[in-house]
Amino acid sequence: MSLDDLNREQKRQLKKMGALTDDGKVQRAPRQQPRKKDRVGVRQYLKEVRDEMRKVAWPKRPEVTRYSIIVIITVIIYTALVGGLDYLFGILSEWFYAQDS
Q1: What does the pLDDT read at residue 101?
Q2: What are the angstrom distances between the C-alpha of 68 and each of 17, 60, 62, 65?
């Protein structure tokens, strides 16, 4: 692709990014230096974690119990469904492959 294939807006964007000079010639954009991330110490990190954990709205015991029961019942239902389908497909495959030729 050449510069002739680009429209005015694309050329303006390339100039803005530094890929084109003012006279329209291609130039390599300078490589951006990666930023150094500000690191904090262990004490500061643990303090911030503790402060954030205090903001969490923890569920009450009855709510946790209710959701746990719902999850256990759902797991039992899906396990029974998968087990039943496995049993049904096992019987069907035995019938299909055990046919006398």
Answers
A1: 52
A2: 54, 12, 10, 5
State the Cα–Cα distance between residues 17 and 100, nearest whole angstrom.
Answer: 75
The string of pLDDT tens digits covering residues 17-57 is: 777 777 777 777 667 777 777 788 899 999 999 999 999 99
In whole angstroms, give the CA distance from residue 64 to residue 61. Answer: 5
Return the C-alpha torsion angle 9, 11, 17, 21, nearest 10: -150
Q: What's the gap between Cα 13 and its chain centre?
A: 31
Q: Angle at the Cα of 39 (from 33 to 45), degrees rounded to 5?
A: 155
What residues are paired with 26 via a beta bridge? Answer: 20
